[in-house]
Write a structure and sequence with these properties.
Elements (H helix, E strand, L loop, with lengths): L1 H6 L4 H19 L4 H18 L1 H27 L4 H15 L8 H22 L8 H9 L1 E2 L2 E2 L8 H6 L4 H29 L8 H21 L4 H24 L6 H17 L5 H13 L5 H12 L2 E3 L5 E3 L4 E4 L5 E4 L5 E3 L6 H19 L12 H5 L6 H16 L14
Antiparallel strand pairs: 1-2, 3-4, 5-6, 6-7
């Protein structure tokens, strides 16, 4: 650890200067030799560093979500080239390049604050060994060696011997109790931060190896902090505990107000947004308008929670417009198309409606009218009498007796057996 800290010694002077500036402020309030003055100086250093790293944190969130979006494609590449690792790596890099995603972007905040962490370790190690470092002179060194946090010196470690702790003016029991509590809090905050990320802010519709990896890290990181924490000075534990608490609070804010699509956090956020919009009939700010605009623009690609949100607004008589605004349903105009379908316009995107239902009597009358009209127009008026029968036969008087019976039979046969319309003349029979 000392070798690594020495590698980052170039940043030791700026870090020690920032600590001294904060110490000069808190020393006037709590006293220059108190643990509060030096401890709050370290906490303020963490806050200053994390504020400067906010742009990297935003980039980390975007990179993490982009990686989650690419997980299905990555899984396909792994299955397709599972026997060719080189080709698999080439296809992965090609996918990252096309999507503009960098897997290392999710580690930027940790990588960026690593030099400050090791520089602080180098400063505290110098205080423990009684060496001036950076802008910390002999007077500040003596003041820092007297500073205790709940009875534990800033430069003391869990693994220090009783003699070394006694040189710093403390008892070994106090040091180990304080460091053990801080290590437990540091590991617990790291576990909770990773757990809320996995349980609330991950798209539950995508099951990929990336999620399994994140679950594994949820247990690995706390163990790593516990193992390495016993070798950290109390001041470094203060630094890392403050960092974890800051990360936990920052992530809780992001999960609540800008959740990952498809996650449980998005379902909770859209439920709160729906209640507010339904109550006030409008959106509050530009961010909510942007979210509604994105949901409306997805169309059929909306997930389950987004469809539920749109349906909830519709049931409340509201319509989400493509520009992100929300208007009342009364402002929409219902228009009937030529095929009888109803659509809603003027209140957002067109909405198709079912045709108006007709009563039974209306359906029967329309069916009867249509049948009569078709019959009148399509069927020609034809006679049941043969077209090739001479006109004289029609005008001749009916014969008496059997002739009358025969004529009646002919007419009956013509009425029952003949087809409608003009008939085809019979071919002459062969004698």
């Amino acid at each position: 650890m000392d070798t690594i800290a020495g590698f980052f010694s170039f940043i030791t002077t700026p870090v020690s200067w920032v600590i001294v500036q904060f110490h000069s402020v808190y020393g006037k309030i709590f006293g220059p030799d108190t643990g509060w003055a030096w401890g709050l100086s370290i906490v303020s250093l963490v806050i200053l560093i994390r504020i400067c790293l906010i742009p990297l944190f935003v980039k980390q969130i975007k990179a993490t979500r982009a990686m989650q979006t690419l997980q299905p494609e990555m899984k396909k590449i792994q299955e397709r080239y599972k026997n060719d690792k080189q080709r698999q790596s080439e296809e992965m890099m090609k996918l990252y390049k096309e999507s503009g995603t960098n897997p290392l972007s999710s580690c930027l905040p940790i990588l960026a604050q690593s030099p400050f962490f090791f520089a602080l370790y180098h400063v505290l190690n110098g205080i423990a060994t009684g060496k001036t470092i950076g802008v910390i002179d002999d007077q500040l060194l003596a003041s820092a060696r007297k500073a205790h946090i709940f009875g534990a010196p800033l430069a003391a470690k869990f693994t220090d011997s009783a003699d070394k702790v006694a040189q710093l003016g403390a008892h070994i029991t106090d040091v180990r109790v304080v460091t053990a509590i801080m290590i437990v809090l540091m590991s617990g905050s790291q576990f909770y931060t990773q757990r809320q990320l996995m349980t609330k802010n991950v798209d539950t519709t995508v099951k990929t190896p990336f999620m399994q990896q994140q679950k594994m890290l949820m247990y690995v990181f706390p163990v790593m902090f516990a193992v390495f924490g016993i070798n950290f000075p109390v001041g470094v534990l203060v630094y890392w505990l403050t960092t974890n608490v800051w990360t936990m609070g920052q992530q809780m804010y992001v999960i609540r107000n800008n959740p990952t699509p498809g996650s449980k956090a998005q379902a909770a956020y859209l439920e709160r947004l729906q209640k507010h919009v339904t109550h006030h009939g409008k959106t509050r700010n530009r961010r909510e308008k942007t979210i509604i605009k994105t949901i409306v623009g997805k169309g059929r690609d909306r997930n389950e929670f987004e469809r539920k949100f749109i349906n909830g607004l519709t049931k409340a008589g509201l319509v989400a417009q493509p520009d992100g605004l929300v208007v009342k349903g009364e402002s929409a105009t219902v228009v009937e198309t030529e095929d009888g379908t109803m659509i809603t316009t003027g209140g957002g995107a067109p909405k198709r409606q079912q045709p108006k239902r007709q009563s039974k009597s209306q359906r029967q009358s329309s069916t009867t009218t249509g049948t009569a009209k078709t019959t009148d127009e399509s069927e020609p008026k034809t006679s049941l009498v043969k077209s090739d029968e001479p006109q004289d036969a029609k005008a001749a008087p009916k014969p008496a007796g059997g002739g009358s019976k025969s004529g009646a039979g002919t007419r009956s046969k013509a009425q029952s057996g003949q087809r409608k319309g003009p008939q085809r003349p019979k071919s002459p029979s062969k004698k």
